[in-house]
Amino acid sequence: MHNLPFDRPGRFWRGNLHTHSDHSDGALSPEETSRLYQEAGYDFVAITDHFRAEYGFPLTDTRALRTTAFTTLLGAELHAPRTEFSTEWHIIALGLPLGFPPPDSAESGTELARRARAAGAFIGMAHPAASLLTLPDAESLDAAHAVEVYNALSAWEDRGDSWHLCDLLLGRGHRLGAYAADDAHFQPKDPPGCAAWVQVRAESLNPNALLAALKACHYYSSTGPEIHDVRLHDGKITIRCSPVSRVLVTGCVPGKQLQAGHALTECTLPLDMFRASAYIRVTVVDATGQRAWSNPIWLS
């Protein structure tokens, strides 16, 4: 009813949805990139090289890197003209079929995203803050499944958080997911990778199961803390998590509920102030400032 993943069958699988290799502007090969994530405790990675003519429109084939304990999602970062403040769109597309045709010069970002979604892809709005996406830009990308609300590489450049734009879209009734990602290139000037991820609830590590769960918003995102459970009951919300210093519940109405303390692992908050809100979302913050975010939880 509330699109919550925590009591669904299966388990959480840790993955990164936005990564680059030397098939575009990354420093490492797909093999090295995948190995780095696997050694960091990830269960899957999507290498999303820039789908541009200058790189030969790569759709990096990582199927040979899959094992029983680690898998990959095939995808790319798609580009087409244009947004209000940029010459091109940045669109994450996961689950693209090999041989997906490149865009022609007349295809807009909106049309390209629709075509990728029709081909079976999960569509993400990449780093909106870094791209200076406006609300009209974002509303025009009607094929999107989710907004990239935190981008670790863009955070290094002080434009990593895109929750404001996501909340505006949600407040206007757009039912979107929200995910965090590295956007790792592993260049010498870049921040370390493995800094932001999703925890996807699925019954198996099969790529199709992961993609289905992503499309259904059965995941949460993190830069550190874990969210163990979110449950709505009797006009209240209960959150269980790894030890944190703050728990916030936010909606599309002014104000928010906050519970603070030392090493919180569970709290219950009333929902009465969100009676006029179609959704809420949960943020937990640990003692070092690292965060985890639920997807939007629809109340109606």
Question: What do you see in this structure?
Answer:
The chain has 300 residues and is α/β, with parallel strands linked by helices. It is built from 7 helices and 16 strands. It has a 16-stranded mixed beta sheet that branches. β11 and β12 form a beta hairpin. It is globular, with a radius of gyration of 18 Å. The mean pLDDT is 96.
Output the keywords.
34% strand; alpha/beta; 7 helices; 300 residues; single chain; 18% helix
Helicity, as a percent range: 10-25%
Percentage of residues in strands: 25-35%
Radius of gyration computed on alpha carbons: 18 Å
Shape: globular
Give a topology summary.
Elements: E1 11-19, H1 30-39, E2 44-47, E3 50-51, E4 71-78, E5 91-94, H2 109-118, E6 122-125, H3 128-131, H4 135-140, E7 146-151, H5 152-156, H6 163-171, E8 177-181, E9 197-202, H7 207-215, E10 219-222, E11 227-233, E12 236-251, E13 256-270, E14 279-285, E15 291-293, E16 297-298
Parallel strand pairs: 1-2, 2-4, 3-4, 6-7, 7-8
Antiparallel strand pairs: 1-9, 4-5, 5-6, 9-10, 10-15, 11-12, 12-13, 12-14, 14-15, 14-16
